[in-house]
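Note to self: keep these together.
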Amino acid sequence: MDRVIRPEMIDTGEGSPSEIAASLRDMQFLNRAFGGDATTLRMVRKVASKSAQANLRLLEIGAGMGKAPLSARDVLAPFGIRLHVTLLDRVQVHLDHNERCVVGDALALPFRDESFDVVSCCLFAHHLEPGELYAYTQEALRVARIAVLINDLVRHPVHFGLAYAARPMYRSRLTRHDAPLSVRRAYTVAEMRTMLSRSSAARVDVTAHYLYRMGGIAWKR
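Structure:
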């Protein structure tokens, strides 16, 4: 299935505050039920194991409410792994202000080199064109000390059909418009592996996860 580039309503600022909030809740549900939270958790566990770090500072990009890393934080805490999460989004109203949060541009992160151990994103990468994704990865690698994590959808005809069929269950008209389109804008595992391999990362791991999710790790040199 060819990649289709069309703007999503959540990107263009359409919708009332209540509709945007409902759309963010829809995304939280989709992450929780269909592999998003689990994908972030697996990648963070892998970073903690490989780096032998029990305390990790994580910056979540395009965070919205940031529930994927916050869920990982809660799951990992009883195992002695402390995840200190900072949320970054370009739209202030998207953020959960009960957490540490920053308004900023993903392509020009307002942080010094290696300010965080891990820079992560969930359902953000498919919003970027290949050149933007390369620029984002380079910027994230600058700010990260250990690794950059990318949790995103996999473009596939069956996934598109599932996203389209599920539209009646969404709370927000924004999600009903954006969910199938997100699948059409997403990359395949092979495409993501190729693009991340062009970055300055020392090593790249990209794996498929449950229900048409991918997890990409770009390890810092």
